[in-house]
Amino acid sequence: GPLSERPLMQVRLGELHTWISTCDFSPQGLLGAAQKAWNSYYAKYINVRRGGHTGISMLLAGYCLLSYSWNYQHFKRHRWRKYH
């Protein structure tokens, strides 16, 4: 199919610049890309017949890492003020 309809993993390195230039970076386009990514993740890991706990575990692990990274800067600043 056309280059703009290929997923990122099917784009060759030499075609990457052209593929990126065909992407829609407007708020509507970014929202559509996020929605497409969520639907793909949901179909692959959560909405399966005999799925395990992998999808939800990945989601929770991502949330834990994101939450820790948000709070890490706070901990780092707090510790620095306490000892210096």
From TrEMBL:
InterPro entries, per the entry: F1F0-ATPsyn_F_prd
Superkingdom of origin: Eukaryota
Segments traversing the membrane: 54-72
Presence of the UniProt keyword Zinc in the record: no
GO cellular component terms attached to this protein's record: mitochondrial membrane; proton-transporting ATP synthase complex
MF terms (GO), sorted A to Z: proton-transporting ATP synthase activity, rotational mechanism
Record's subcellular location: Mitochondrion membrane
Keyword RNA-binding assigned: no
GO biological process: proton motive force-driven mitochondrial ATP synthesis
Keywords attached to this entry: ATP synthesis, CF(0), Hydrogen ion transport, Ion transport, Membrane, Mitochondrion, Transmembrane, Transmembrane helix, Transport
Family: Belongs to the ATPase F chain family.
PANTHER family documented for this protein: ATP SYNTHASE F CHAIN, MITOCHONDRIAL-RELATED, ATP SYNTHASE SUBUNIT F, MITOCHONDRIAL
Protein name as annotated: ATPK synthase
Gene: Atp5j2_0
